[in-house]
């Protein structure tokens, strides 16, 4: 529960930062708090350890002094938590009953449409396109990307957690697809199970040669729109 609550805080912080970037404003504590709005008061800060709260929540500057005090009093005076008026706690502290899994869950889906694909296929080795959207699955942020090697199209899965998110590890079971663009043809599908962690946050899979991918008979490349679509359904444990 506590580790999930901390993951929810990290996810909320990333979401607020993305909103600030979308609105072309500074990712300041004030703007982050404004972006979070009422969602801030859905986070169960009292369930985070006092050490974790001090090291990660306080430095963010998002909470005001009265909110800091309330959380610290919660930890210091457990016997008075239910005394009316002892301190103005704005944050819930009852346990979550899988609401994190209901709202974010351990399953995710991502798609990436690579436009001007014929041009992309001629770029230098190592060039890539990544999904603009990231999804949070089991408290971790994920993206997918397509990358060029000398002859092959590479499909990648990337957990974009930052170094300051600390040590983490998870197993990801995924179904990767290059989506069919032509009636009567099937998606090109591969299934993989891999372990991701803070030292190995990304896996690349050699999928298909560019020659085969762009072969009209495969139906994976839309010549008229000059695009290829990658998709993934995955589970994180």
Supply the helix-strand structural class.
Answer: alpha+beta
Shape: elongated
CATH C-level label of the largest domain: Mainly Beta
Order of helices and strands: HHHHHEHEEEEEEEHE
Kindly state the percentage of residues in helix.
25-40%
What are the segments in which pLDDT stays under 50 over at least 5 consecutive residues?
Answer: 97-103
InterPro entries: MATH/TRAF_dom, TRAF-like
Organism: Heterodera trifolii
Protein name: MATH domain-containing protein
Characterise this structure.
This is MATH domain-containing protein. Residues 114-215 form the MATH domain. InterPro entries: MATH/TRAF_dom (IPR002083), TRAF-like (IPR008974). 26% of the residues lie in helices and 30% in strands. With 237 residues, the chain is of the alpha+beta class. The protein has two domains: 2-101, no CATH class; 104-236, Sandwich (Apoptosis, Tumor Necrosis Factor Receptor Associated Protein 2, Chain A). Helix 1 crosses helix 2. It is elongated. Mean pLDDT is 83; it is low at 97-103.
Keywords:
elongated, alpha+beta, 2 domains, five-stranded antiparallel β-sheet, single chain, Apoptosis, Tumor Necrosis Factor Receptor Associated Protein 2, Chain A, 7 helices
